[in-house]
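Structure tokens please, single chain.
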Amino acid sequence: MSAQGTITIVPSVHFSPTHRRRVRSTIRETEPDVVAVELDDRRYDRLEERSGRSPLELAQELPPATAAAYTVLQAVQRTVVRLYGLDPGQTDMEAAVETAAELDIDVALIDDPIAETLSALADRVGPELLPKLFARTQRMGPDRQAKQLELLTTSFEEITSGEDVQPAIEQMRLLLPELTEIMIDRRDRSMGRRLHALRSEGHDVVAVVGAGHHLGIKRTLEDLEVRARDAGPLESAETEYWEFDADTTVPIRSPARSVTRIPIE
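Here you go.
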């Protein structure tokens, strides 16, 4: 640890073997104080407990609307992963936790609680979303439609930073702004705040996050660094954005060496 810690972000595709190898090599080469992962307590505990429960059983733990959002997202994720020929049972988060255990390094859980994210999603997404999506797609010109097809054919193995997936994020923002705010933007801010808290405590951190979160987290860290340096009063419009920054706490775990796999969330 040092007076001011450092953050090394490893942007990855969750189910890619290439990115799992990149995660392992970065952690081994860097030997950080802490490995931060895009997980919350619930998802991490499922990994450590080797939970064999089915998605249906897990969904029953959530309120009905939240459970419905969970079930739909999981089905979409499994379909996309298999279409790209990836293994839905192996993730970069598993690789990060296993490597941290191997080196006797603690793991920081920096993502928002999954139940909160799904609840917010259930509040924003309803039956009217599909007609909105259809209308927005129809308003796209031929150039944008061609670009959309191009994005769908991008090889995951070529992704090395958030810049590589930013066009896809912007496309999602255009077609599904309701989902983008909840699934990307809000979580970017939360993960950035938690990483900033670790950095402020003097920890050198390797953070393993989805490539789609890379640039948003980086922007949040830069904003927080400027704010910490200037230490000026907040404008009223900024209060909500920074409201829990001052006393942010980050769950820290000491992983077992025998972690198995992390189920899809």
